Amino acid sequence: MGVSDASRLDGWEGQLDRVLRVVPYVSLGVSILLTWLTSPFWPVESLPRTTVLAAAVGLWMFWMVTLHPRWQQRRVLMGLYFAVLAILSFLLVLHSPLFGFFSFTGYLHAAYALVGRWRYVGVVATATSTALSQSGGLQTLQAGTAGVAIFGVVLFFNITLSTAMMSLSWVADAQAARRKREITALAEANEKLESAVAENAGLHAKLIAQAREAGAFDERQRMAREIHDTLAQGLTGIVTQLEAAEQAAERPEQWRRHVRTAARLARDSLAEARRSVHALTPQPLEAARLPEALGDVVARWSTDSGVAATLVTTGVAQPLLPEIEVALLRTAQEALANVAKHAAASRVGLTLSYMEDLVTLDVRDDGAGFDPAGARPERADGGFGLAGMRERVRRVAGTLEVESEPGAGTAISACVPAILAGAAA
After folding, report:
1. DSSP per residue, 246-275
2. β-bridge mates for residue 404, sequence order
3. Between residues 261 and 331, which one has the greater pLDDT?
4. Which of 49, 161, 213, 296 ranks highest by number of CB atoms within 10 Å?
């Protein structure tokens, strides 16, 4: 697939053609494979017919996108392409909820094929198929009022959060365009200066290119980390609470408690996502010092996950540079998210230690553990994991150590310099 517009290489849309070469086909193949493997245990409507429908979806994408990349400029044709794809995806999910792995790629196709506010229509269509998959498929809708209510709640959260992510992408794109215009204006001023300082022309051009690349890369990295720390972790908590609500459908009090918790997580995630766009301080640190903010995060996580968690603070707590406090807070959140998803732990302990020149954060659990020396595949949920924590701590001149072994739990230790707030000034 070729790039339809060279200028898109400067923004996130420039990567879509590369992603669409592989991701939709891989996710479609995985969905077909899982459907066949689980068919003895999961009722699938007409497995051969489902396979033929999936093959038709693959051929539709291959013909309309892979073989004819220049058709992307034909907006009416692309609207028809997405409409047919959305209908086929919904039919696949009706046959088997496992095709939710594929239907999620509809967000990529919406960004690729649609323009303007039509992208929101594409987001809603994709969120509908995704929500049906997450809530258990057609059987959930046939389960009565409780099933329809669960589908409605999941659909609401999917539409809200996916719309927020689309808005985030638009804001980031607008900021990148503004920076590009500013850089263009600066380049024009430099061209006038080159006549007087011709010997520095090459150096100026190189510095401008490096500054542009570094700025774009840093902004993409920041947005990726912040979205992961807000939306990804929030969605994980929401799905967990809604699954618990589904299991408690016959117990109204527990069902309402899980739905209220899911709603609170959605509101918190949406608020943090909006703050991330403008690079604001995370909400827990806005009106509280780091120990209190960590204590609130640990208490909420323990309530939502059902795992006992404690925080101990040693030394004299002092206000640190905002960048350092944000790094420690995000590291704790990511570590707790990993425990909830992978560790199967019964207890978690956090220790925040203030020393003369250093501040350390230790997170220990008694869960399943793993081999740190083994290969760590890229996470399927798009998260950054240990690599992301190391990068975040490294950016404030700190270090991150991990100790673990299978069956013996995991210990993560972040060590950062104790630079007091106001020291930079």
Report:
1. HHTTT-HHHHHHHHHHHHHHHHHHHHHHHH
2. 410
3. 331
4. 161
pLDDT in tens, 351-396: 999 998 999 999 999 999 888 877 454 444 434 478 878 888 888 8
What pLDDT digit, counting tens, does each position of 211-231 carry? Answer: 345 444 554 565 555 555 556
The CA distance from 78 to 15, in Å, is 18
The label of the residue with tokens 């994980």 reads 236
Query: CA distances (Å), 315 to each of 140, 350, 355, in order?
Result: 53, 14, 6
Phi-psi region of 412 (alpha: psi -120 to 50; beta: other; left: phi over 0): beta
Q: What is the pTM of this model?
A: 0.41
Residues 374-400, buried b or exposed e (16+ Cβ, 10 A)?
eeeeebeeebbbbebbbebbeebebeb
SS3 sequence, 195-206? CCCHHHHHHHHH
What distances in angstroms separate CA 228 from CA 154, 221, 223, 318, one per listed residue? 20, 11, 8, 28
The residue type at 30: V
Q: How many angstroms separate the CA atoms of 223 and 211, rounded?
A: 18
Radius of gyration of the chain (CA): 24
Among 254, 252, 40, 266, which residue's Cα sits nearest to residue 161? Answer: 266
d(CA 343, CA 309): 13
- 118-134: average pLDDT: 85
DSSP symbol at 5: -
SS3 state of residue 160: helix
Structure tokens at 336: 């707790």
